[in-house]
Every structure is written in structure tokens, then in C-alpha cells.
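Dear H.,

Thanks for agreeing to be a second pair of eyes. The structure we're designing against is below in C-alpha cell form, covering all 80 positions.
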């Protein structure tokens, strides 16, 4: 499994709608957090090895109504 974090900047007043849509859109998004700063939401996503991350982000997250911009962080190792 590949873990990525996608931060999303939302249209004004749309953050809660985007968060709800993200949770409902796919089971690949395991958590959605409201955050402060340049972005409004941070989504933790688990993708199968070999999944095209670019396609996932552009087709499943950037197309959610109310998303203005995204920033993706790819992880290498999880420390428990």
C-alpha cells in the first residue's frame, strides 16, 4: 500500500461540503482533517501499489466540487 496526503484549498464556504464529498467519493480516502494555513483540508489516502498517483489526484480529488487547488505529499515509510 502507498500512503499519500493531499491538501486541498476550497472555494470560500465550501470546506465542509468538500470534506463530506471526499469521504463519500471513495474508500481510498481514509481520513479528512480540517487544517489551518494555506490549505483547508488534509486527506490521508491509501492506494494500492502501482496506482498512478497523478491520475488518482486529478480524477478523484481535484474534480470534487469546491476544490480550487491541491498539494500532494508522497510518503516513503511509516514509523509506528
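And this is the sequence the design step returned. I haven't edited it by hand at all.
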Amino acid at each position: 500500500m502507498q500512503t499519500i496526503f493531499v491538501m486541498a484549498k476550497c472555494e470560500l464556504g465550501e470546506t465542509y461540503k468538500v470534506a463530506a464529498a471526499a469521504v463519500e467519493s471513495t474508500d481510498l480516502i481514509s481520513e479528512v482533517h480540517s487544517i489551518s494555513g494555506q490549505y483547508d483540508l488534509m486527506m490521508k489516502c491509501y492506494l494500492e501499489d502501482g496506482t498512478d498517483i497523478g491520475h488518482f489526484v486529478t480524477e478523484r480529488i481535484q474534480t470534487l466540487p469546491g476544490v480550487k487547488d491541491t498539494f500532494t505529499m508522497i510518503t516513503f515509510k511509516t514509523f509506528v
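Two observations from my side: Residues 15-25 form the longest helix (11 residues). Helices lie at 15-25, 53-61.

Warmly,
E.
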